Structure formats: C-alpha cells, structure tokens
Amino acid sequence: RVLIASRIQALSTMAAERGNGNVKRQLAEVFERSLRATVPSEVDVEPIITVGTGNFGDYQCNNAMGVFSKIKGKNAEFKNPRSVGEAIIKNLPESELVESCSVAGPGFVNIVLSKTWLAKSIQNMLAEGIETWAPKLPIKRAVVDFSSPNIAKEMHVGHLRSTIIGDTLARMLEFSGVEVLRRNHVGDWGTQFGMLIEFLFEQFPQWENETELPIKDLEGFYKQSKKRFDDDAEFKQRAQKAVVSLQGGDSKYREAWSKICEISRREFQKVYVRLGVQLEEKGESFYNPYIPKVLDILRSKNLIEPSEGAQVIFIEGKQIPLIVVKSDGGFNYASTDLTALWYRLNEEKAEWIIYVTDVGQREHFEMFFHAAKLAGWLPSDKYPKVNHVGFGLVLGEDGKRFRTRSSEVVRLVDLLDEAKSRSKDALIERGKATEWSEEQLLQTAEAVGYGAVKYADLKNNRLTNYTFNFDQMLNDKGNTAVYLLYAHARICSIIRKSGKDIEELKKIGEVVLDHSDERALGLHLLHFSEIVEEACSNLLPNVLCEYLYNLSEFFTKFYSNCQVVGSPEETSRLLLCEATAVVMRTCFKLLGITPVYQI
Ligand code: ARG
C-alpha cells in the first residue's frame, strides 16, 4: 500500500510539473487509482486513455480487456472484460473532471467530462495564460539541425521545407520548456573550396582589400570555376593544392574561404529574416578539428576497419559500410556527422538531437545513428536519442520536381516575393487599399503570403511529396493559412465590435458551456495541450495543423448556432471567442505564422 501511495504521489507531482493542460494525463491519474483498487495485484498496469471515438464519451479508458486477460484464472471476481470495466467505474475516486462513465462493447469505459470543469479550465487558462497549457517534456536541451544549405550553392525548396519544418519543431519544443539549440549545419567544407579559392585569386587579384567581395551570383561563380576546373589541368592541380592549404590552416586560404562563405551567408540570412526564423550556424567546418579525436574513440572500440584503402564501419544488414576516412585520407559527410553527434551529446549535453532533411538522406542517418549505437553513445530508446525527420519532395504542377520554366532551381526569394505580391493583390481586390495604410497592407500581405507558404507545407504529413501551388495555398476557403488567418481576424472583430473590455471580462466573467456547440468547442480547446505534446513527441507538425483547422470548424458551428453579442450569455460567449483566438494565435506562433487581427 505504501508503494502504491508513493507511486500515486509521484505521478501527481509529475503531472503538476509537466503542465496542467493535458487532459489525458489528468484522467490517467484518476484511472490509475481506480485500477489499483480494482486489481491490487497488478501494480504495473498503466492506464490507457484515448480520445473518445463514438458519441458516447469525450475520452475512453481501454484497460478492461488487457487487465482481464492478465488476471484470467487468477481472479474469480471477474467473469469477463465488461465486469472489469464496471469495476473500474465503481472504484473511480471522486474527481471534478469526470461527469459520468459507462461501459461499452467488450469493456471500453466511456468518459464524459464535467462541463463545469471544462468551463473552469478555460477560464483559468484565460486568467493565467496559455503557457499553463504548455506540455512539459522530460528533457532540458535539444538540438534541432535544420535548414543547413550548402555554401556557394543555391538554397532550394528542399532547404525551404527543412527550414519551415525545423523551425516549427523548434518552436514546439521551446513552448514545451526545452532549450533548443537551433543549428544550421551548413555545408561549408569540402574539396569544392579549392577551386573556388583559386578562381577567386584569378578573378579578383585585389580580393584581400575588399571587405565584401563584389560577387552577386555566387552560384554562377561556382559554375564558372567548375568549368575552369574541368577544362584546365593546370588549374585543377592548383585547386587541389588549395584544398590542402585550406585544410592545413594556411591563413591566406582561410581568409579567402571565409569571404566566400560570407557571400552565401548574406543570401541565406535574407530568407531567414523574411521567414522569421532564428538559426545559429555551426557548419561542417566547425567539427573538422574534432574528427581525429572522435575517430580515435571509435577505433578504441574496435569499430573502424580498413576496407579497399578507406576506413569504414560495418553495419549489420547493410551491404555497403559507412566510410569514415576516404581512401585519399580525407574526411567526409559521415565523419563530420559522427563528430557533430559526439559534440552535441558530450559538449553541448543535448538529450534529443533532431535532423531535418529530405527522405533521400535516410540511409545516411540510419547508418551513422547505428554506428553511434554500436559505440554506446545512445544506450536506450529513451533519452538521449536521435531522430531523422525526413520529408518528401516539393513537386511542380506537372508532378515533377519543382523547377522554374527555364528548368532552373526555384529561388526562394522569388517564391516569397510572389506569395507576398499575390496576397497583396487579393487584399486590394477586397478593397483594403483604400481602407488601410500602405504599411498595414504590406504587413498583412506578408503575414498572409508567407503564412500560406508555410502552412501549405506543414499541413501535409511531411513524408509525402507535396505539390507547390500558389492558387491553392492562397485560397481563402478550405484548409489554408488564409482561411485560418481570416477566421482569427473575424473572431477578433466580434470581440472588438461588442464594445466590451475583454481584459475586464476575463477577471469577472464566467464561462458556461450549456449549448452543445459551446461544449464541443470547449472540449476541443481542452485538447490543445495533448495535441501539442503529440505533434512534438512524434515530430509531426501536421497534427497541429489539423487541430487548428478543426478548431476553426468548431468555432464556425458555435458561432452560427449561438448568438454572441446581445444575448443573455454574451459574457461567457465572448470569453469563449477570446479563448479560441488565444489558442489559434498560439497555434500560429508554433507554426511560425504571424497572426492578423483585422481583415
Ligand atoms: N547540407 C546538407 C544538404 O544540403 C544538409 C545537412 C543536414 N544536417 C546534417 N547534420 N547532415 O543536403
């Protein structure tokens, strides 16, 4: 009994520490007590609580079947799973959450939540802030490795996806109380720099005097230098020597290298500023000095073997081993990633390391994760852990890889420009040019345009390819950011037009959920915390998008069936509007979308 009591104690402190909003977890606590009373011998049965599927309950407890098969033959009290379900209900402790329960089918326990409790929870959230509904993850620090374009190459739509998805994951983790190291693992190291540097020396003999190199089109510069490299054997030799000088730390070569990197960095930064994305660069070059030491650690564990002149790690079930030192003695993508992982675990003390790239790189991640497991760096499937967050391709309307008409890689800046100008046109069409200042027009166009690009990406399961289509993403109907942003603005305008001081209502008003559409909206609001936790734990932003879209649907239903302004329930209903707006805004924030308040 002491054991059970202390376990319950531990569970409830855990729930308090981990944020109060999670209904599933709060129900789990209540049902855990009932399970202990129902089958005291089965101390390790964990409560299984899910969101209700039918019309009979808001949530379900699904333990009866499992418990019955465990105790069958041992305990004569129960004849079938149903009788276990009935006993679970009978043994439920007093709880303000639960209104009523009933057994369905083979023993599912349907749970109806108390609407008074629902109403109160919403009121509390309004008074104390949405942070009280934030999930709390059991880790302190995570690395999200995202965006990570390559120097001297164009940042393409794949990098855009990585930037958008990675930023959202970072935001969700941060909201859940985790410190996130937002890492831009740029490709700033490698043999291509030899030819770039030599070409720079040729083209700009004065390069050392320039604080900023006058190269507008670094990608074009890259192509020219590549041509030079392929066409001229003497240049090629110089370029190869330049790599050696650079990697040997020759200051002149380091200087040239860093100036070249700076050009790309400036371009990347433009995109990040527009998207409102924060990143801290620790490029491949950063880890270079640590590689020999990390490889020695792996060698000491007998993991590295020579193979055809290279040094490799053999991975069970994989035909080709992981190459960690090339046959020319150089390091590669894998040696850098193994070292970066070592650094993140040991120097940065990250407990969860998340990599966001296209699914095409899955094999690479599988391989070096496996090597890290062999080295004992990732001892369990709990924390510290690593995840590769893969995503599909961005397709054009022709179903092929997204390209411009001249079949070039699409420039991100152009893409964002177009999204912005299209949404500006749409606003002008709605007559906003006369109603609003130019500044408000532009700000809204940006919020809507960039929001649309982000949301169109995030709403899909990230593993699938998605088709980039401006008309679709900028449609003001359907599951789009435009629709959702407008819905939010409309809620704000309902509150504004009521003429009531919402801050005052929060202090004195009371939420009541008597109408079934009020209750349905209230219940959906209460799902927020567990949805964020699910989206975050499973690294699936689309879960949050779906929640947000459904929220707007529940709101529409409520608003069309319940008069707000001028009704006897006005105060409560305005508070419900406000709560919806707060939760919507929080979803926008987590998705990296700037809300609009007026439309
Ligand atoms: N620079 C790589 C690319 O453009 C992505 C790097 C991802 N991060 C990593 N740690 N490997 O494909």
From TrEMBL:
The keyword Ligase applies. One of its GO terms (biological process) is reproductive structure development. It is an enzyme of class 6 (ligase). Residues 484-599 form the DALR anticodon binding domain. Keywords: Acetylation, Aminoacyl-tRNA synthetase, ATP-binding, Ligase, Nucleotide-binding, Protein biosynthesis. Belongs to the class-I aminoacyl-tRNA synthetase family. Forms part of a macromolecular complex that catalyzes the attachment of specific amino acids to cognate tRNAs during protein synthesis. This is arginine--tRNA ligase.
